[in-house]
Design a protein that fits this description.
Blueprint: H1 22-32, H2 35-46, H3 61-69, H4 72-75, H5 85-94, H6 108-112
Helix pairs in contact: 1-3, 1-5
Amino acid sequence: SPSPSSFSSSSSDDDRLPLISATALRRIVASSLSQESYDLFQTAYDARVAGFEFMRRINDLPTLRERHLVSGRDVGAGQCIWANDYALRTIATELNLCLHIVDEESGRASRSS
């Protein structure tokens, strides 16, 4: 996996950060999963927390890791695990990034009333 030290700190167009494929990012996330992560995901699923429905057919850590490697391009959107809180935090930590995510849809309903 790419290391943060391999990135250029220059902001010129010639020295942009290298692109990292979604496959490489998926590998980073999958390899970071531990038994503790599996247990937390399973607990959230058992408590019917929204967004953890993917755990329905996952019974162990190796299967959870395999499912994180599946691409939407290969199986269709909605059939893969991606861009969840765990994945985003893991990628940000691993690549020494600060992510600022804006949900442009949030709050629209309350503004329109």
